[in-house]
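Hello K.,

You asked for the raw outputs rather than the summary table, so here they are, unedited. I folded two proteins back to back in the same session to keep the settings identical. This is the first:
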Amino acid sequence: MIEKIRTAGGEVFAISSEPQHLANQAHEHWDLNFENIGDPHQEVPRVCNERDWLTLYANRGDTEFLQRGADWTVEHPKGFFQPGVLAVTQSSRILYRWRSVPSEANLNGTVARPTAEHVWRCIDESLNAGDVAGDAAHDDHPVIDSPPPPRIIFMAALIANGWFFRAKSFAYSPGTASTPVRFKRAFRRWPPFLLLWVIGFALLPQLWILCGLLFWLAWIVIDIRATWGRMDMQEEIKASE
C-alpha cells in the first residue's frame, strides 16, 4: 500500500516504543522503505491524545516476560504502547484512525490488526469524500489480519516456547523467524513432551511421576498467572503524563 499512499501525496511512518537504535535495527532487518521512529518516552502518542486524534493504550507492567524471549535489552521507561493507525491530512483532517483496545478477545492486544488493504480502502474513501466529510470516526470493526487463537492454545504455545520450564514470549529479535513460524514450531514440541510423561508412567513408579506432574502443573500455572497479571496493566496514554 506504500506506493498508493505516496501517489496520493502521503507518507508513512512507523512509531515504536523502542529506542531509536532498535527501530533502526528492525528497519534494516525487515528491509522497510519507510521511516521508523523510536519513541520510548511516548511523545508522539501524547501529542495525538492532546489533539484528540487518537488515544493509545500502554502496558505499564514490568517487561520481565518480554525479556525472556528477546536477546536484546528491553527498554520501556513508560511501558510499551499498543498498536494504532492514524492518517491525517496537512490540514489535520482525520482520514482514518484505529487503536488496539486490550481485551480477552485479542489476548491483551497481542493479536488482531487491521489489514493494510482495509486501511487504505478507508483512507481512499475519506479522501474522495473531501473536507466536507469531516473527521473519520474510530474504526471499531476493521478487517483483521488473522483471528486470535483460543487462549488455551496461545498459552500452550508460550509454555512450549519456553521448553516447558516457563512461559516465553515470541518477542522479535533480528535473524529470528516470524512469530507465526515460531508459534507452529513451539506447538510441535507438545507431542514428544506428552509422550515422555506416558513413558514415565509406564516404566517408573507411578506415584513419583504423578507427584512430578502435579509439581510441574503447579509451577506452570503460577508462572502463567504471574505473567498474565503483569501483562494486564493497561492504561490510556494521556497528554498530561
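The second followed immediately with the same parameters:
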Amino acid sequence: MIKQCWYWLLSLNERERAVKDASEKLQMSMRTTAKCRYNAAGRLQSQGKFAFFTTTSLSLGLIFIPLMQNSGIPLAFKASVLNMMVIFLAVAVLVYSVVIGTARYELRAENLTECGDKLKELIREIDKDREANNKIGEPQLAKYQERYSDIVTDTENHIRSDYRLAMLEMTRDYYITGLPRMSNYILAYSSRFSAYIVPLIMILFEIIFITDMIGMTKIIIPYFNGVDILVDK
C-alpha cells in the first residue's frame, strides 16, 4: 500500500499507454497533436479577447480623464500630469491595436482548430481501415503518415504548455499522477498567464490613477506630485 502511494505520488509507473502496433502508435500521436492544436486555438482566442478588453479599458480611460478635466470637478492631479496620462493611454491604445492586428489571434485560432478537425477525420479513417482489415499494411501506413505530416505542417506549431495540458487531459493515453501532475499544471498555466502580466499591470495602473484622480484613493499621488484635494477639507 505504501509502495503504491509512493509510486502514485511520484508517478513512477508507466506514463503512456502501451500500443500494439505502428498504426495504433500513429493514432496516439495524432490524438495528442490534435488535442495540442485545440489547446493552442483556445489559448490564442483567450489572448485575443483579453487584448481587446485591454484596448477597450485603456480607451475608456482615455475618454474619461479629459471629460473629468472639463467638468470643473476638483481633481487630485495637476493638469500637466493628466495630460501626460492621456498621451500615455493614447500610445498604449495604438500599440495594442497594432498588436491585435499583427497577431491575428482569431485567424490563427481558426487555422489551428481546422488542423485539429482534419486530424480527427484522419484518425477516424484509420479506425475504419483497422476494423475492415484488422491490420494496416506498411504502404498504407506510410500514406497515413504522409497525410499526417502534410496536415501539421500547414499550420503553426503549438507551444509546450499546450502539450502539457494535452497530456493531463488525455487520461486514457497518459498516466501522470501526484507531484508530476501538479508540476505540469503549474508550469502550463504559469506559462499561459505570463502573456497577461503586462496588460493586467497597465489596467491596474489605470484604475489606480483614476481612483486617485477623483479622490477615492491616495496610492500614487505623492509620486506624481499631485495635489491632494482633501487636505483643505
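Residues 22-71 form the longest helix (50 residues).

Happy to rerun anything if the numbers look odd on your end.

Regards,
P.
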